[in-house]
Design brief:
alpha+beta, 53% helix, 8% strand
Amino acid sequence: MNLQAHYDREILEFEEINNITEEEIGILKNLKEVIDVWISFGWLDREANAPAMVLDLRRIFGISNLLDTPKISYSAAYRAQSKNANVDPYVLFAWQRMCELLTKNIEIADRIDVEKLKNKIPDIKRVMFVRANQIQKKLSDIFSECGIAFRIVPNFTGAPVQGFIKETEDGALILCMTLRQKFADIFWFTLFHEIAHILNGDTKHEFIDFDSVSGEVEAKADSMAGEFLIDEKAYRVFIASEGYRRLNGIERFADSQNVKDYIVQGRLMKEEIIPWKARPRYEWA
């Protein structure tokens, strides 16, 4: 009992010295999923008590008090999107910091080269034909040539996002993606959706792409992503001829577009032209 009383007194003094309040400690509940992942990264100590965990999170967040997180100023693009998304500001900021830290040491070209990125579209499409465990490395290599630090990152409840794009101080870009649904066709469509945002100039300074938000900017990126994957005119001819009904018809059309057959299947299913069925999933990140 004496040992416990002494320990409790030390903790209280520690909290007072570092201005840690019960309200700030309470935020740890919001961040439980984040904390578990960051412990697996080695960023946090599993054995740390609550006040020490608060100090470690302050350090990673780069702020003096976790309660200040919702007050951090975001870009207009973020504010416009977050109004319609179910967002926990603590989790979202933690996810954003994770993106920044995981891409920090990736070697890339000095500045973003949009024209080179556009010319790399065929190379990016070819990556979908490599083994799944090689995809992230192949994509990272291609993006790095264009001045983009690319990483696939874990997603958290409270941060319903599919992508994060941020312009660094030296003119390069960070591009992070999640695998929220893990379907391979959705991953590739989302990747080209994010590329479209970059090419369309939607990503000045900072852009957080929520997966439940629509609008003119998102519709334009969707349209461009679809065109990157499948030529629209060729697709309409394919549909009109009912090529998807013939044996191996989907495979032959996918080959003509330099994509995997699940890309064509995914679009046909989304447009309710063929029934929904199982399709490949990615399990990394």
